[in-house]
């Protein structure tokens, strides 16, 4: 049966206590009890529907979590204060000293730094691999490997992970497949393809208004319960808790995600085709020339396109900077990191979001200096945007007249 994430979100209804069309916001960090016995049971996790303290859970955070579980088709979900707050709690819950992780080498810079520099302090080692080469992924698995980690569409190179094939590998070696789906909410549903845990930075497309950080872990009830365990749960004990006011505002933005993703994709597809025809080195999963175009197609939920991210390579960092500054001046978008905003955002990942990755490794993975990553906005008239972009490119000499 076809999986319909947008419909699943739409069908969830929560009402406010006075019949409001939005649920009431739980504006409390602590909760009163009529009996001491119920307080004890709640602390032990045995009193369903009771709240104790908002680091454990709060009504607003649970509403948002349930809506995100509906998005990913998982049993439940746990929201966090940021994407990194979600990623770190998952990896620290699944791994202990002596364990090993096999990770894609093209991942978010913060995740890369966490695995490269932080987890080794806890004696958790990571082997970084080209996730599109399944034989290399398999060869990196050792008897200590616990987790296979990747992004469905990678940052910033837009490599596409073959999630079904990776899920088969995970099954064969009894690993947990953890997928960061931040670049492709709605487009790809990793849990439906066999991923055990799906993570998002809500900061990006899902919230979509660049006004807050947020994260989520989507998974089984058992795993989420483990994260929230008062004795050894990484969510509970590391304390990366989202505030209820933010959970309520992100839930409202989630309601329009399908409309936004469709428009981001439509605009990005238009620009990618134009740029490619102009002879620019363009990477976009919706282009037939993309090495993983067919894999993306085989995994995607058909209604939302190939996403809002594309890259072009203009040859050098100087050219990239010159072009980005001019595009900002012409109001095409903003020279800024992050993604999923209504306005186009652009940055040169080699010197910004992926600068945690050493230069030699950047070169090895194909992250060149002149690469510009675009998060294409919700522009109403994308042809007009294209014409202004082209003028900028001609002016800085990236394109000929
Ligand atoms: C931004 C991002 C993160 C980190 O999320 P924060 O909300 O900034 O902590 C993780 N993964 C990907 C793919 C991202 O783009």
Summarize the structure.
This protein is α/β, with parallel strands linked by helices. It has helices at residues 5-11, 36-43, 59-72, 83-94, 109-118, 134-140, 163-172, 221-227, 234-238, 244-254, 257-277, 293-299, 317-329, 359-364, 382-396; strands spanning 76-80, 100-104, 125-129, 145-151, 176-180, 197-201, 215-219, 281-283, 309-313, 333-335, 344-347, 371-375.
Verbal overview:
The chain folds into two domains: 250 residues, Type I PLP-dependent aspartate aminotransferase-like (Major domain) (Aspartate Aminotransferase, domain 2), CATH 3.40.640.10; 139 residues, Aspartate Aminotransferase, domain 1. Helix content is 38%, strand content 14%. The protein contains 15 helices and twelve strands. The strands form two sheets. A seven-stranded mixed beta sheet has the order 1-7-6-5-4-2-3, with helices on both faces. It has a five-stranded mixed beta sheet with strand order 8-9-12-11-10, covered by helices on one side. Helix 1 runs antiparallel to helix 3. The longest helix is centred in the middle third of the chain and has 21 residues. The chain is globular and about 75 Å long. The protein starts with a helix and ends in a 5-residue tail after the last helix. The structure holds pyridoxal-5'-phosphate. Pyridoxal-5'-phosphate binds next to helix 4 and helix 5. Pyridoxal-5'-phosphate (PLP) binds next to helix 4 and helix 5. One of its GO terms (molecular function) is pyridoxal phosphate binding. InterPro entries: Cys/Met-Metab_PyrdxlP-dep_enz, PyrdxlP-dep_Trfase, PyrdxlP-dep_Trfase_major, PyrdxlP-dep_Trfase_small. Belongs to the trans-sulfuration enzymes family.
């Amino acid at each position: 049966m076809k999986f319909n994430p947008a419909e699943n979100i739409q069908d969830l209804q929560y009402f406010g206590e006075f019949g409001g069309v939005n649920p009431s916001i739980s504006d409390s960090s602590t909760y009163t009890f009529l009996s001491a016995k119920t307080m004890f049971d709640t602390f032990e996790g045995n009193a369903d529907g009771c709240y104790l303290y908002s680091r454990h859970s709060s009504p607003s955070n649970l509403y948002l979590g349930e809506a995100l579980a509906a998005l990913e088709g998982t049993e439940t979900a746990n929201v966090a204060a940021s994407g990194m707050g979600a990623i770190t709690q998952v990896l620290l819950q699944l791994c202990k000293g002596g364990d090993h992780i096999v990770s894609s080498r093209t991942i978010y810079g913060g995740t890369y730094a966490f695995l490269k520099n932080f987890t080794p302090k806890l004696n958790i080692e990571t082997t970084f691999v080209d996730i599109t080469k399944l034989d290399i992924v398999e060869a990196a698995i050792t008897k200590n490997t616990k987790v296979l980690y990747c992004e469905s569409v990678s940052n910033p190179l837009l490599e596409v992970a073959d999630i079904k094939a990776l899920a088969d590998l995970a099954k064969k070696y009894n690993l947990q497949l953890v997928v960061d789906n931040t670049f492709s909410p709605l487009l790809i549903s990793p849990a439906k393809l066999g991923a055990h845990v799906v993570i998002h930075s809500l900061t990006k497309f899902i919230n979509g208004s660049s006004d807050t950080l947020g994260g989520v872990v989507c998974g089984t009830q058992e795993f989420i319960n483990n994260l929230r365990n008062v004795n050894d749960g990484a969510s509970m004990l590391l304390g990366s808790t989202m505030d209820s006011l933010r959970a309520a505002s992100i839930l409202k933005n989630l309601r329009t995600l399908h409309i936004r993703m469709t428009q981001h994709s439509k605009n990005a597809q238009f620009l990618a085709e134009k740029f490619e025809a102009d002879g620019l080195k363009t990477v976009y999963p919706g282009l037939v020339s993309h090495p993983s175009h067919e894999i993306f197609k085989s995994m995607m939920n058909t209604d939302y396109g190939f996403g809002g991210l594309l890259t072009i390579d203009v040859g050098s960092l100087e050219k990239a900077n010159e072009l980005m500054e001019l595009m900002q001046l012409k109001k095409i978008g903003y020279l800024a990191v992050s993604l999923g905003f209504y306005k186009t955002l652009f940055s040169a990942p080699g010197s910004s979001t992926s600068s945690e990755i050493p230069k030699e490794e950047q070169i090895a993975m194909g992250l060149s200096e002149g690469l510009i990553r675009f998060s294409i906005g919700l522009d109403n008239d994308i042809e007009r945007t294209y014409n202004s972009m082209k003028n900028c490119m001609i002016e800085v000499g990236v394109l000929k007249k």
